[in-house]
């Protein structure tokens, strides 16, 4: 099927969904956005990507929907909704064609394993790992600070052979490239999710607990030491579970963070706007997998306890 005939669905039009969906639409693709709380604003004013590295992108009108049942059946679905979203499998099954390719753009571990039982067997499930600095600045407005790379890895579905899986991933890469989105193809997603978690686990939680962005966190000796110790716990667990993590991975991540503009991760914005944080996807699953191989993660566990307290306080007081 040619690009012009493909229908692309965006499930969850926040920062991630809004950014990648607008980029794909700007590349000439037929993109349909599912959103709820910001539906009226996006319908009236569209989606704006205010980028520090690319020209400002304003998409208007937007093919926006409140209900997945109103969307056309999509060939490709990119899931920008967080792991805390309800009824995600049902929504995807409603919005997608029977053989849809579903790309899960979420942080955390085992996300695909959790979603797979709720999808039709005929759908392809692909892990998508985003390397991008952005946040939602207002209704329909995304502030893009840096990067945008997506890694794609086939997880499960009717594509049985490596050749079939590779062909689907290549189709996904061509689709993303049409929107000027850099893409890499992976042999799988588990190893990449572990490596991304080395950065995500410390920086997401510490940004909330210390109310600070990356520049301050890496520049202060005390917070830098804590981040390093948390990274070491994730690396030790990953290696205990058979994931090959290169020597020097932590130093490499610090260098990359120092080169970024000051950035507040997604969990910080969830806390700021008093939304549920992705505590289980980023910490709970990690601690359970660590326990299975006899790893102790005292810094990660203490961080999770603090985040649970913070979240319970603001959700209870709503």
From TrEMBL:
Question: Pathway, according to UniProt?
Answer: Cofactor biosynthesis; (R)-pantothenate biosynthesis; (R)-pantoate from 3-methyl-2-oxobutanoate: step 2/2
Organism's domain of life?
Answer: Bacteria
**SUPFAM superfamilies in UniProt:** 6-phosphogluconate dehydrogenase C-terminal domain-like (SSF48179), NAD(P)-binding Rossmann-fold domains (SSF51735)
Pfam families in the record: ApbA (PF02558), ApbA_C (PF08546)
Q: Main EC class of this protein?
A: oxidoreductase
User: What InterPro entries has UniProt attached to this entry?
Assistant: 6-PGluconate_DH-like_C_sf, 6PGD_dom2, ApbA, KPA_reductase, KPR-Related, KPR_N, NAD(P)-bd_dom_sf
Q: Which reaction does it catalyse?
A: (R)-pantoate + NADP(+) = 2-dehydropantoate + NADPH + H(+)
**GO molecular function of the protein, one example?**
2-dehydropantoate 2-reductase activity
Give the GO terms filed under biological process for this record.
Answer: pantothenate biosynthetic process
Q: What are the record's GO terms for cellular component? A: cytoplasm
**Enzyme Commission number(s):** 1.1.1.169
Which ranges carry the Ketopantoate reductase N-terminal domain?
8-156
Q: Which UniProt keywords apply?
A: NADP, Oxidoreductase, Pantothenate biosynthesis
Task: Please list the residue ranges annotated as the Ketopantoate reductase C-terminal domain.
Answer: 190-311
Query: Which family does the UniProt entry place this protein in?
Result: Belongs to the ketopantoate reductase family.
Function statement: Catalyzes the NADPH-dependent reduction of ketopantoate into pantoic acid.
Give the NCBIfam families listed for this entry.
apbA_panE (TIGR00745), PRK06249.1 (NF004887)
What name does UniProt use for this protein? 2-dehydropantoate 2-reductase
Q: What is the lineage of its organism?
A: Bacteria, Pseudomonadati, Pseudomonadota, Gammaproteobacteria, Pseudomonadales
